[in-house]
């Protein structure tokens, strides 16, 4: 029934934006015979079934977990410990457990201890997603051409790692292996800081007096609206990201604030050359992203 | 030859991204019989002629300006004073002079004194554009469904204002009348701060050690890349924006920094409720922008 990369049964724990999109990808690529959602929200279960994303949706781990060759945990990072306690007793030897969390050290710390011996625990993070939430926001092809970072812990079974990697490659992702600490440092810069800044700037605007706020919305195409998309991302997911990657995030906020203060000073003192030089350097980064086909 | 909103000859001063896109729009909508570019860069003149954007391109104001019913100044705000000195002596009574600058008080201050009596000076700002520069980046339809802000000074001729407004409406823009000071305050929030923040965050990343910078580019789809697009905008144009709207920009940086510091503190002290509440509020702003069809 299974080959190198496909699974008989895949259990998706939390059928939100990412796991719902993964369900679509697994079906489209023939990588799972049967999909089961373990989900505490009855409305999300109803939507997932109605959309045909999964074959079964239940809040009972004893029904969902045993017999699954792959379990994908797609819940906010702050819920990993609790999910681990719920699914751990039902996991059987040989199963691969992965996750989709945006922080990896915290997942290793919180989910890891609940994984029994003989179960292959391979934390992961797909660099894909939109600002939308819930199973109804599933996107066909979400992972195609995107990176899938896997952060195996020491002693991980090579065959299990290769099997999971091959699954993601068949979905259309490029797989990158990284250690959890390095992941959290890189993502603090590429993802966590940008989200925090976007939340901040949109928050600054939302604190304005009524008439000014109305105009900010009206004229948002002048730059502001680019920030509002990512500031519409799931609040609980992002609360957990910042709380669980605290040290790395605080470090990059510090760097950012120093750089902003330098530009602020250049504006105050009319230092045109400093501004122009800084603004010229940043163009090169954009070009590099376009060249890397990530634009 | 002309009706309410069309012109016999339109002179575009500086044939960059905005004026080149305007040339396309004027032609497409039959709003100008003849288009002349006044441009000091020989390469930009060559491209503009080769693309058929204009009928004539010259660096001689005595050829370009006299006889134009409309003169549109599309140069960085810091060059307005110099352009005023160059075109002023060639302007004739009845001509309408407008501009496309992102700051309006500075344009009134620097360009205004060069406009002779009898010439109608109506500063403007199209809320449209991409991160690209130069005439080759002209976009057909750039202004359709976007706002055109006009900031007439006291005593502006009503007929001239209506004629210019009607031209923009025929191009497909919605016209908003505003006083220059209010414009600069609103745009400091919706445009100038977002651009400064984007330049800062991309600059922070470009200061990283080589291997980390490589990974930032590789995994930029996780949020960072949304900032790099606007941080690729024209460096000279943006240098001038910050220098010429200094007070309003410094005021919003201050607000932003306070808000960022509050979130930083909430992260440090693990105040999850504060974070979640802030991140929930910002979702409403995104919805309002989508409802206003500016997304």
Automatic annotation (TrEMBL), chains A, B:
It holds the Pfam family PDH_N. One of its GO terms (biological process) is tyrosine biosynthetic process. SUPFAM superfamilies: 6-phosphogluconate dehydrogenase C-terminal domain-like (SSF48179), NAD(P)-binding Rossmann-fold domains (SSF51735). Its EC number is 1.3.1.12. Residues 8-295 form the Prephenate/arogenate dehydrogenase domain. GO terms for molecular function: NAD+ binding; prephenate dehydrogenase (NAD+) activity; prephenate dehydrogenase (NADP+) activity. Keywords: Amino-acid biosynthesis, Aromatic amino acid biosynthesis, NAD, Oxidoreductase, Tyrosine biosynthesis. Pathway: Amino-acid biosynthesis; L-tyrosine biosynthesis; (4-hydroxyphenyl)pyruvate from prephenate (NAD(+) route): step 1/1. The keyword Oxidoreductase applies. Gene3D superfamilies: 6-phosphogluconate dehydrogenase C-terminal like domain (1.10.3660.10), NAD(P)-binding Rossmann-like Domain (3.40.50.720). The keyword Nucleus does not apply. InterPro entries: 6-PGluconate_DH-like_C_sf, NAD(P)-bd_dom_sf, PDH_C, PDH_N, Preph/Arog_dehydrog, Prephen_DH. It catalyses: prephenate + NAD(+) = 3-(4-hydroxyphenyl)pyruvate + CO2 + NADH. NCBIfam families: PRK07502.1 (NF005694). Belongs to the prephenate/arogenate dehydrogenase family. This is prephenate dehydrogenase. It comes from Magnetospirillum molischianum DSM 120. The lineage of its organism: Bacteria, Pseudomonadati, Pseudomonadota, Alphaproteobacteria, Rhodospirillales.
């Amino acid at each position: 029934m299974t080959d190198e990369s496909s699974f008989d049964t895949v259990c998706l724990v939390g059928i939100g934006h990412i796991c719902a999109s993964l369900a679509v990808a697994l079906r489209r690529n023939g990588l799972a015979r049967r999909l089961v959602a373990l989900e505490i929200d009855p409305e999300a279960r109803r939507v997932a079934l109605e959309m045909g994303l999964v074959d079964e949706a239940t809040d009972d781990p004893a029904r969902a977990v045993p017999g699954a060759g792959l379990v994908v945990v797609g819940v906010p990072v702050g819920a990993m410990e609790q999910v681990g306690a719920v699914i751990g007793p039902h996991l059987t030897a040989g199963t691969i457990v992965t996750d989709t969390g945006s922080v990896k050290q915290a997942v290793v710390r919180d989910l890891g201890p609940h994984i029994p011996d003989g179960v292959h625990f391979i934390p992961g993070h797909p660099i894909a997603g939109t600002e939308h939430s819930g199973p109804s926001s599933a996107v066909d092809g979400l992972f195609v051409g995107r990176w899938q970072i896997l952060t195996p812990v020491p002693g991980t079974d090579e065959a299990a790692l290769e099997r999971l990697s091959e699954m993601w490659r068949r979905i259309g992702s490029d797989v990158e292996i990284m250690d959890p600490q390095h992941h959290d440092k890189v993502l603090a810069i590429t993802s966590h800081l940008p989200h925090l800044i976007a939340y901040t700037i949109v928050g600054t605007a939302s604190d304005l007096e009524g008439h000014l706020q109305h105009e900010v919305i009206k004229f948002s195409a002048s730059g502001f609206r680019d920030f509002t998309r990512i500031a519409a991302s799931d609040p609980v997911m992002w609360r957990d990201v910042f709380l669980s990657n605290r040290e790395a995030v605080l470090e990059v906020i510090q760097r950012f604030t120093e750089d902003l203060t330098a530009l602020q000073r250049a504006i105050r003192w009319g230092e045109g050359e400093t501004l122009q030089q800084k603004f010229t350097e940043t163009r090169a980064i954009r070009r590099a992203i376009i060249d890397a086909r990530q634009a």
